[in-house]
Amino acid sequence: MKELPMRIGILGTGMLASALGSRWTRAGHEIAVAGRSLAKAQQVAARLGGRARALTVREAIVEVDAVLLAVPWSGVEDTLCRVEAFTGTLAGMTLIDPTNAVDHGVGVLHTPLGRSGAQRVAELAPGAHVVKAFHLFPAQQWSDPANPPVTVAICGDHPDALRVTETLVRDAGAHAAVLGPLDRARQLEEAAGFVIGLAFKGFDPRAAVPRVPATR
After folding, report:
1. Is 14 helix (H, G, I), strand (E, B) or coil?
2. Taking the model in full, what pTM does it have?
3. How far apart are CA 213 and CA 165, in angstroms?
4. Could you list the pLDDT tens digit for every one of the 216 residues in the chain?
5. Is the dihedral of CA 34, 35, 37, 39 positive or negative?
6. Residue of 80, 73, 63, 62 whose CA lies nearest to 11
């Protein structure tokens, strides 16, 4: 397992980038923020403080322990294509995918039946060690330190990438639950669609899930 500090590249300058970046800087990690706009990346890095810096996409993923793909689903293909064009490859890197390929009004997945967004991310970043994580909770979960700990379900095919992601989940103040290989990502993304659909209809998703006694 990686020792502190890790170097994390964050692709994106939105709320999730800021929220998780803030948690990780407080945990002692070094953060490299990159996005379409260097000015926005600089604003995010300034808010994060600590060991956070705004860099170009090319610089942000050099010698990192993990990359967070903190962009909306609509920007995933463009972002990863630009990364591949600028840097040549994400092969061998832990690539954390928190995206939701859903219609946010109803929670229906945009990916073909039997396929997941995470698998599409893996296709767009050949050789990357993709881990699905952080997609079930809004950025507000991570932006408020007073929020109680949650459990982050993750899945991926590469043991080292899973271990790195587990560490980052814990350093974000949450518990990590590894559900299995990346082919379970569709199941996790459907769960996100279920939660989003209920929330947009005005229901508390927690009230729709039965409470099961803990087994440990």
Report:
1. coil
2. 0.92
3. 26
4. 455 789 999 999 999 999 999 999 999 999 999 999 999 999 999 999 989 999 998 899 988 999 999 999 999 999 998 888 766 679 999 999 999 988 766 777 788 787 899 999 999 999 999 999 999 998 999 998 889 999 999 999 999 999 999 999 999 999 999 999 999 999 999 988 888 888 888 888 888 888 766 665
5. negative
6. 80
Tell me which residue has tokens 């923020």.
Answer: 33
Alpha carbons 77 and 216: distance in angstroms, whole number: 40
Closest CA to 165 of 98, 71, 87: 98
Per DSSP, the residues of 95-122 read EEE----B-TTT--B-SPTT--HHHHHH
